[in-house]
Structure formats: structure tokens, C-alpha cells
Task: structure prediction
Amino acid sequence: METRSAEEIEESTERLLSDLKAVVRDGEELLRAGAQELGERGMIARERLAAALETAKDTARKLQSQARISVQKTDQLIRENPYQSVGIAFGIGMLFGIMVNRR
Result:
């Protein structure tokens, strides 16, 4: 199992949120553009897309909130235990260095 740093997690979460926002923005533009030329089937599809967009927006908000909380907790833990954090990082770095040099 791969462990990732708080920065990597935050970066990937930000990328995911950015992609999700782009999808929502594009979906909203499609809804606005196609509203005049839709038949009955199109209206049903439009309603489904609108529901999916709302779900995507909610998911984005939840992910953003969780990411902030995780980063704050990690920051707080490191600030409360700076020497332990440095020691753990050093130990992981040593193990990683040993493993890389073996190959």
C-alpha cells in the first residue's frame, strides 16, 4: 500500500475538485445551450443531467471540506509533535534510501 504525504493528497484532491468543477461548468453550459431545442426525451435527459450536476457539486463540497480538515489535522499533529515528526520522516527516508540502494 502506498502512503502519500499531506501535500500529495491535497494536490490530488485539488486536481479532482478542479476536474469536477470543469465537468459541472460544462454540464451547466450544455443545459443552457440545449434548453430551447429539447423534446420530451431531451427534457428527461436534461433533468437527469441537472440532478447529476447537483450530486457532483455536493461531492465537490464534501471532498473540499474533508481535504481541509485532513490537512489541518496533519498540520496540528506535526506542530504538536515536531521532533517525533522529524524522526519519523528521517526513519522513512533512511528506509527508502536503503531500499533504493539495494536494487
Observations:
- The chain has one domain: 6-102.
